[in-house]
Enoyl-CoA hydratase (Legionella cincinnatiensis), 260 residues
Amino acid sequence: MSDLLSEIHGHLCLLTLNRVSKHNAFDNHLLIEIQEQLNSAIADSNVRAIVLKANGKHFSAGADLAWMQNMARFNEEENLKDAMVLGNLMYTLNKSPKPTIAMVHGSAFGGGAGLAAACDLTLASQSARFCFSEVKLGLVPAVISPYVVQAIGERNAKTLFMSAEIFDAAKALSLNLVQHCVPEENLLEFTLNYAQQICNNAPEAVRISKQLATYVANKKIDEELVRYTASLIAQKRVSIEGQQGLNAFLKKETPNWSNN
């Protein structure tokens, strides 16, 4: 059976890590599979949101250590090429025009926690555990660091990177690494319902809202930003999608995009 399962349910794409015997630790082969299926979901006009989840007891143990050890036999240039596979995947998850949601249960260690951080939001079981464990192996959380720091801030990232502390879902929630925690038996239902809530919204408005949050987070509040945001809402008010949404609301009808 494949190490990655891909399913389309309505407007939702489910990507499921299925390397259960290795606790969903990823090697180059699995990373390439995820990248290919992620690209396919992004290109599919029917798909409005993407969920990354896992079979087995754990979300992901991070990088496959046997694979990492094997890569030590190669030179730095070859290792750079290999590391860029994970780097490109993380970037795609983070910059995808469609919302990406990590559904985490069990353990998310090292790069596994990084995958969750790269997604737009993470929904976790209350029993989930997280750890940036790289320094215990003489390594560093390099490729995942931009997304972890973006999610939890520099000081928290320093602390967890240097200590390799194992922390629970409640702490992950307080750090903003996780957005919602639910009992594990309810996690799948909660995730599907949450993803469907996103899918029910205007797809182009969702795409722009995702980009908007990233854009304004890196800008100071000045006249230029005020004008940019005012211009953006002015454009959406007269757009086809905006008109459909406003008309449907006033008529107490379901907007057309929900029926596509």
Notes: The chain has eleven helices and nine strands. The chain has two domains: 4-199, 203-259.
